[in-house]
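Q: Given only this backbone (65 positions), what sequence would you predict?
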């Protein structure tokens, strides 16, 4: 689990455009759910902020890093 998270963070950290894309696509659809993530067949991804959005904000929140 932490493994996957670290991998995603590493991936998007080297890809600023990817971060913007994630933040643009993974938005609240107005009902507290992610507009981008599948609603069915997945666990823990449909609530917004979803994992993708949270991870995309990590590099920016660490300005010292
Ligand atoms: Zn999402």
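A: Predicted residues:
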């Amino acid at each position: 689990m932490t493994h996957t998270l670290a991998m995603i963070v590493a991936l998007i950290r080297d890809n600023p455009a990817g971060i913007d894309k994630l933040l643009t696509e993974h938005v609240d659809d107005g009902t507290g759910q992610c507009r981008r993530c599948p609603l069915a067949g997945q666990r823990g991804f449909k609530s917004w902020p979803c994992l993708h959005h949270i991870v995309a904000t990590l590099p920016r929140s660490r300005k010292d890093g």
